[in-house]
Specification:
The complex is a heterodimer. Chain A is elongated. Chain A has an eight-stranded mixed sheet with strand order 3-2-4-1-5-6-7-8, with helices on both faces. Helices cover about 55% and strands about 10% of the residues of chain A. In chain A, helix 1 runs antiparallel to helix 4, helix 7 packs parallel to helix 8 and helix 15 packs antiparallel against helix 16. In chain A, a hairpin with a 7-residue loop joins strand 7 and strand 8. Chain A has 23 helices and eight strands. In chain B, helix 4 runs antiparallel to helix 5 and helix 11 packs across helix 12. Chain B is globular, with a radius of gyration of 26 Å. In chain B, strands 3-2-4-1-5-6-7-8 form an eight-stranded mixed sheet, with helices on both faces. By secondary structure, chain B is an alpha/beta fold. Classes of the chains: A alpha/beta, B alpha/beta.
């Protein structure tokens, strides 16, 4: 939802930096953007106000970080506040000492209670439990049949009889005890929060079965009404938590924030797809990143952290940022990336990557990397350090040596130069880049903001500093090539 | 986009990520685990007591204070020029009704320019009513020799099947011969649900097994309708999210099948849950593209939700609301009346 927001905030301008702190006017401008973005994402008005106030408090009077732009700092504050609101006091699902543990599901019509009941049962089953489903929705035609079909799919028994919802729940519980099941999930009919008779009924079911957990099932694309509904159900049932459904509809899911903010109970589970398996515990951090449109940079970085040799990476990264990156560095990087898995898979985790790029990447196989590697390995050390010395005859030699066409060699050299240029611009302040690459700069910045690691920026800053000291690039004259370098090339 | 450039790109990003990782390692190792505290996981332990309700958040008290905003609108003075305070109140009323930020800003801009000579309420009412300009009649009769089809589309859980049942009941009551096509072959027991309604309303039903091709169900229904001389086929489809190309393509195909002789699609109605927020706009946009939506059925208006997002949908996409659902009873699906709707929107 915040796609536009992140970009707008980053434009807040580097000029603010000199002031040392955000002025009230800057802060107002930024927070007004935050407010619009939240409202556009269906976060309830009161919750929006409380949220914006909290972000304001986080930022007010705080000295501006040297390493984050003012906009990034606002984004960071928003991200932290999101995690705080979404993740405070998580609920641990525990099991009753005297089984069965009773779970009651309630919600509006069409929120997805019946499907959720089956998904939840399947989840408990995966945890090694023996769940039992009770279909107490006698209102909607074929709701019991629906649960029976789903129960059969996941291999969980379903109880129902044609009495009354309260009786069905009670009988179902007795039956579960008789069968020795340890988790009972009661599906109830959808009801409006203002329908007193039906609210009394669900209350009666709760009284009769004394559930250990009462979950409100709520649709992620609900608008401002999420709050009213959540509060009314909470008043009547004392909710233990929320289950959010249909999270795959929309990246925004402001209803989650609204409901969470109003009833003060955590979101425990999230459902994001039609398949039974598309159901898991709710992870506040992932949701926060997702709300901010940050892609899954955290996973990408985690993956990098696990597999890559940090020293090798950091060394050449500094040179990449300063524009003194060589083919040798590139080769070293390539080897690191290869360790991380398929390019297509990595592209998926990157934010700001266009669909076309993803498509192209998924069509790649390891062969492309091998081809590039072969071309670089066919270069002399001198050529790798300074590609500008590669003339026509050298190109032909490299092409022959690597089994590639001269055109491919040309392309590699050209694009390598372009990449160097882009990375240099990217590490410069207020950089704006054309095309898909342009999106990487904010994405990376967001990654840093999100990881609560302004420290990360200092490495970039260092690179930037180095770049401004060193003459820009080696422009084809052999003599200049040493001047263009801050660190000696890595020789092997 | 060449393959080489992608390779370069990935390397660049990973490198930059590496910088972050490295810096993080160096500087924040001691606290690294803190923000990534393990997420709630299921632990087998004794449950001492049931979860207890905490004292209500300060939010609810604030929320309470903001109730009755419309009373405040009414209380505002009747002057030609609109004060900033009045605009704030109007903004709140509109946002709370899910009208959306963009439309709200548009309305506010108009109020600023035009003022409110008859009072702010009248001005606001007029401005909102101006959004509902589209023609909202429905077509019931196909060309001679063809069978009319009403196709029902929408996301999951909005009330497509129930809306069909209510319309079927109405049409059967008017003496029409209606065939229901159980085109939702995905959700478990969706056809059973429609069958229960067919029995109650006295409409014909054509269904297939779960997982069958929805197009074929509708094709069969057309055949049945033609053979029996039925007037109208009401075709259900599976609920689907509006951001999946595959699911939308499937819907486009279903519509093509329904529109092929002897069928003729008279209306494609998108069913929309009134509790839905701004996602409804994307839903309408996508379904309009995939299935040429001709109208909206706004359901569940009997709850606390106002369904204000249809204002934005009509303004931006020009899709008219044709029916609204105001209750569970079969007679509770009624023809949409803009004036009544706007009044209820403002009376929240």
């Amino acid at each position: 939802m915040f796609d536009g927001l992140s970009e707008r905030l980053e434009r807040l301008g580097a000029s603010l930096r000199s002031k040392g702190r955000l002025s009230d006017a800057d802060l107002d401008a930024a927070l007004s953007d935050v407010r619009s973005a939240l409202l556009e994402a269906d976060v309830e008005l009161t919750v929006v106000r409380a949220f914006v106030d909290a972000v304001r408090e986080r930022l007010a009077g705080v000295a501006l970080s040297q390493s984050l732009s003012p906009g990034q700092q606002v984004i960071k504050a928003v991200h932290e506040q999101l995690i705080e609101v979404l993740g405070a006091e998580p609920l641990k699902v525990t099991f009753a000492p005297k089984p069965p543990t009773v779970v009651l599901l309630a919600g509006l019509q069409g929120a997805g209670k019946t499907t959720t009941a089956a998904k939840l049962a399947n989840w408990f089953k995966q945890q090694g439990r023996q769940p039992y489903l009770v279909a107490a929705d006698l209102q909607r035609p074929a709701a019991v049949a629906q649960l029976r079909v789903l129960g059969e799919q996941i291999g969980v028994d379903v109880y129902s009889d044609p009495s009354t919802p309260v009786e069905v729940a009670r009988h179902g519980l007795d039956e579960a005890r008789r069968l020795g099941r340890d988790v009972v999930i009661i599906d109830t009919a959808g009801r409006l929060a203002i329908d007193e008779a039906l609210m009394d009924e669900v209350r009666a079911i709760a009284d009769a079965t004394q559930p250990h957990y009462t979950f409100l099932v709520i649709d992620a694309v609900t608008g401002q009404d999420a709050v009213v509904t959540a509060r009314r159900f909470h008043d009547r049932l004392t909710l233990s938590g929320l289950i959010v459904t249909k999270l795959d509809y929309d990246a925004r899911g402001g209803a989650v924030l609204s409901a969470r903010g109003v009833v003060g109970r955590p979101v425990v589970f999230a459902s994001q797809g039609e398949k039974i398996a598309d159901f898991d515990l709710f992870y506040p951090e992932r949701m926060a990143s997702r709300i901010l449109g940050m892609g899954d940079v955290l996973s990408l970085i985690e993956q990098a952290e696990r597999t890559m040799d940090a020293d090798v990476v950091a060394e050449s990264a500094g040179r990449l940022m300063s524009g003194t990156f060589t083919f040798d560095d590139f080769l070293a990087q390539l080897n690191q990336v290869k360790k991380m898995g398929s390019l297509g898979g990595l592209m998926k985790l990157m934010p700001g990557v266009t669909k076309e790029m993803r498509q192209a990447a998924s069509n790649l196989d390891g062969g492309e990397i091998t081809r590039v590697e072969a071309m670089i390995r066919s270069m002399t050390p001198g050529e790798r350090r300074d590609p500008s010395i590669i003339d026509g005859s050298r190109r032909t030699r490299i092409a022959h040596g690597s089994g590639a066409s001269v055109a491919a060699v040309n392309q590699l050299i050209k694009q390598f130069a372009e990449m160097k240029k882009m990375m240099r611009q990217m590490s410069g302040p207020g950089a704006s880049l054309p095309g898909g690459l342009g999106k990487m700069a904010p994405a990376l910045a967001r990654a840093q903001a999100s990881g609560q690691l302004p420290a990360g920026f200092e490495a970039l800053e260092a690179g930037r500093h180095a770049a401004s000291v060193a003459p820009r690039g080696s422009s084809g004259k052999g003599k200049k090539k040493k001047g263009g370098r801050v660190t000696p090339p890595k020789q092997r | 986009m060449s393959a080489t450039l992608i390779v370069l790109l990935v390397v660049a990003v990973v490198v930059a990520g590496g910088v972050v990782v490295r810096a993080r390692r160096r500087r924040t190792r001691p606290t690294l685990e803190a923000p990534r505290a393990p997420m709630p996981s299921v632990l087998v332990s004794e449950l001492d007591e049931r979860p207890v309700l905490e004292s209500p958040a300060t939010l609810s008290s604030r929320l309470h204070a903001s109730r009755g905003v419309f009373d405040r609108v009414r209380a505002l003075a009747t002057t030609a020029s609109v004060s900033a305070e009045e605009l704030d109140v109007v903004e709140e009323v509109l946002l709370r009704s899910d009208v959306g930020v963009t439309t709200t800003q548009e309305v506010l801009a108009r109020l600023r320019v035009d003022g409110a000579p008859q009072g702010i309420v009248a001005a606001l009412r007029e401005e909102l009513l101006a959004s509902f300009k589209a023609e909202r009649g429905v077509t019931l009769d196909a060309e001679s020799g063809r069978v009319g089809v009403w196709l029902f589309v929408g996301v999951n859980g909005v009330g497509k099947t129930t809306s069909i049942a209510k319309l079927a009941s109405r049409f059967v009551g008017e003496g029409r011969h209606v065939v229901l096509a159980a085109g939702d072959t995905f959700r478990a027991a969706a056809a059973d649900q429609l069958q229960a309604w067919a029995e109650r309303t006295g409409a014909d039903l054509v269904r297939a097994h779960e997982g069958a091709d929805p197009g074929s169900v509708i094709h069969d229904a057309l055949g049945r309708a033609q053979a029996r001389g039925a007037d109208l086929v009401l075709a259900d489809t599976a609920g689907r999210r509006a951001n999946s190309t595959n699911l939308l393509d499937e819907l486009a195909k279903v519509r093509r099948v329904a529109d092929r002789a002897p069928g003729q699609v008279l209306e494609t109605l998108m069913v929309l849950d009134a509790t839905t927020g701004q996602n409804a706009l994307s839903q309408a946009r996508e379904f309009l593209k995939a299935a040429q939506v001709s109208g909206i059925i706004l359901t569940k208006l009997d709850g606390t939700a106002r369904g204000g997002v249809v204002v934005a949908i009509e303004r931006e996409l020009g899709i008219p609301v044709k029916f609204i659902g105001v209750g569970e009873g079969v007679e509770d699906l009624v023809v949409f009346d803009p004036e009544a709707f706007v009044d209820s929107l403002l009376a929240s």
